[in-house]
Amino acid sequence: MSNVLDLVDQTFFRVERAAAVTNLIQCVWVYNRAVDLDSLRQFHQHLQLGRLSRRIERSPLPFGRHRWVSPSDQSDLEIVERPRPREQFDAWLGEQANTPLDAECGPGWHLAVLPFTDGGAGVSLVASHCLTDGVGLCEALADAACGHDNGINWPAAGSRPWWRAVREDARQTMRDIPDIDRAVVAAGRFCWRNRGSAKSAGPAPAPTAGADESVTLPTATIFVDADQWDARAEHLGGTSNTLFAALAARLAQRVGRVATDGSVTLTMAINQRTAGDTRANAITNVDFTVDPAPAATDLRAIRAAIKQALIRSQEEPDERWTLLPLVPLVPEPLGKRWVGAATNSAASVGASNIGAVNPAVNRPDGTDADRFVMRSSSPSLRISRTVSTRRTNCNSIFRAS
Q1: Over the stretch 57-86, which tens digit does the pLDDT of each residue have?
Q2: What contacts 366, CB < 8 A, 6 or more positions away?
Q3: Cα distances (Å, whole numbers) of residue 233 to 352, 396, 401
Q4: For residues 109 and 2, what is the distance between their CA atoms, to the nearest angstrom?
Q5: Mean pLDDT (whole number) for 361-378
Q6: Which residues pair with 270 in a beta bridge?
Q7: Mean pLDDT over residues 337-363, rounded?
Q8: Are strands 78-79 and 109-115 parallel, antiparallel or unpaired?
Q9: Is the link from the previous residue into 107 a cis peptide, with omega within 30 of 0?
Q10: What distance in Å separates the CA atoms of residue 336 and residue 326, rounded to the nearest whole number?
């Protein structure tokens, strides 16, 4: 099995390095009783041997493909000795989200448990998005809860001598040349079609003044009965996924994330993970524009828009993905210049629906937790003090099945 990073995963990694931002996925379990610590330790041990047991090793070539390797060390299970009131749980989760993680140097993930003063407990797992996406993380959690290990023995970090690494990575680049050639042609077509965009957009804004500062994006967690959700979606002429997209569109409308005609452009992540898939981010995106106004009473238009977007993605692959072979060739010093282009989408609102998950995901100590939440986070996000930012994302997990 090849340990060469998929181009999407290498792009995720390089974009994070260029932007100095670590994107995380945080899983949260709430128990209304004490957690079985022995079982939680076993869960942690299986995670150490499972899908998360890897890190990224850079190629010695500036244009080379990076590779997966086994981590030399992993973080210990953190058991908070001093219980806290439940009211402080959100603050503690924020502290956990700020745990230093690094997909290259490690650790790439961290598991912790906080006892509550009323006898309950909360559990947090934070993982680098460079190691996995939401679906992949759910598979890793289910495997660990069931006592299954990954069985993939990645090469040890630093196991390749320098000369061998240069030779192998140069050969990999040679194998990638046909894809690189196609990406160059696609880039040329893209620039030609958008040659008037730069002129119409006007001159670039002057550099902003003032030091960068950290920002914390507001989040909210809402629990909805899955049967009621599905019933409402059917009543409005849609599906569970359609209702989720409609909710994202209405939220965008409420915060003013709309075009001049009142429409909202959504981007939806599409899972492409297959059996035995070793990719960290096995996804693609589709963009579509909807009118949020009738979303609360009729989902048929949004359902049709999603269907057409999915058909279009099969017939006309997104050009952003066809350009990926060029990513390893971009010099590091230009990283901050291309990071915006690499992540830019016509869409302004993200709607990431994981769907139904394995019930074992909800059993980190071997028994069902009373609540389970998965959310994304960018704790190291920084913006210029003189620049405002608006970001709308909608993330969800539906019923376990």
Answers
A1: 999 999 999 999 998 888 899 999 999 999
A2: 36, 39, 42, 43, 145
A3: 17, 15, 19
A4: 23
A5: 93
A6: 284
A7: 74
A8: parallel
A9: yes
A10: 16
Q: How far is CA 285 from the centre of its chain?
A: 12
* Structure confidence at residue 398 (pLDDT): 38
Q: What six digits make up the tokens of 169? A: 């990575």
Burial class (CB within 10 angstroms; exposed 0-12, middle 13-18, buried 19+) of 124: buried
Give mean pLDDT, residues 154-171: 95
Residue whose token pair is 């209304």: 32
Q: Percent of the chain beyond pLDDT 90?
A: 61
Q: What is the pLDDT of residue 117?
A: 96
Which tokens hold the place of 186? 């696609």
Residue 306 CA to its chain's centroid (Å):
21
* CA 192/CA 313 separation, integer angstroms: 22
Cα dihedral sign, 13-274-158-66: negative
- pLDDT for 201 equals 43
Going by C-alpha positions, the residue among 72, 195, 78 that lies closest to residue 126 is 78
Is the confidence at residue 243, as pLDDT, over 70?
yes
3 state SS of 380: coil
Closest CA to 373 of 218, 230, 241, 221: 221
208: CB partners within 8 A, 6+ apart: 384, 385, 386, 387
Structure pTM? 0.87
Provide the 3-class DSSP secondary structure of residue 49: coil
